[in-house]
Structure formats: structure tokens, C-alpha cells
Amino acid sequence: MLNIILLGITSLLTDISSEMIYPILPIFLVVQLGASPAILGFIEGIAESLASLLKVFSGYFSDKIKSRKPFTIFGYVSSTVGKFFLFIATNWLYVLAGRVIDRFGKGIRTAPRDALIADSARENKKGAAFGLHRAMDTVGACIGILLAYFLITHFKSSFKKIFLLSLIPAFLGVVF
Description:
This protein is mainly α. It is 86% helix and 0% strand.
């Protein structure tokens, strides 16, 4: 049960971090960095395709070597590093690198993390375990969006400041 709660907290914190960034990232790219909508589509297409492909392979390899935790930790660390690239971005290539590294992390961690949850849950409680994890993940997403909105509307925070602040929950998620 402890693994399930810790993975839920990690997902909650990581989603807070991600959702602080993703709603404002297109605006940052186009308005601040002068990227075209085609560049935005290119970045997102590459990043999301990579994540989808890696989920298949990371699950296979974590099953093969029977070790899920290193994949999961490496995936969360990669996502945090990717967010740092957004903070230091001065052109769209940094954003591309950040998104690719972030989605690489998501692709690497997802299947092994889900297997850890399944392995940690009692046979008759697997649905509850995944439900708890999904609920914490969703709460994190809601908090992240609200936090970004609050930072923009009440503190007139810049994109860079929000990117920097998003590293705090991302780092805490890795610690958990």
C-alpha cells in the first residue's frame, strides 16, 4: 500500500508541475519566442510520438529485467530535467529539447509505474489502487492549472518565473 500512496503523491506533484507549464507553453512559444504554429505542432508531434512509442518498450524491458523502479525513477528525473530546459529556453530549440526529454521521461516511466502499482496492490484491490493513483494524478493536474492561473492573474508572473516555480513540485515528486 505504501508504494501506491508514494507513487500517487509523485504523480500528484509531477502533474502540478506539468500543468503549470503546458497551458501557457504555446503562448510562450509563439508570443515570447516568435515560433510559428507549425513549429509548435512539430514540437508537440515529436514529443508525444516519442512518449507513446517508449511506453511499449519500457514496459517490455522492465518485465524482461524484472526491475521496475529504476525505469520509474529515471522517467520522473527526465521529466524534471526537461522542465528545466523550458526555464532556460531562449529559442524554440530549447523548448523542443525540453519537451522531448520530458516526454521521454513519461514514456519510460508509465508502464513500469503501472506495473509497480499492480504488483503492490492486493489481488482484490487493484481497481482501488489504480483509482487512487488516477485521482491523485487528476487532483495534481487541477492544482497545477489553478496555480498557474493564480500566478498569472494575481502576481503577474512571467513565463520564466512559472517555469522556475514548476520545478519545485517536479523535484519533490522525484524525492517521493
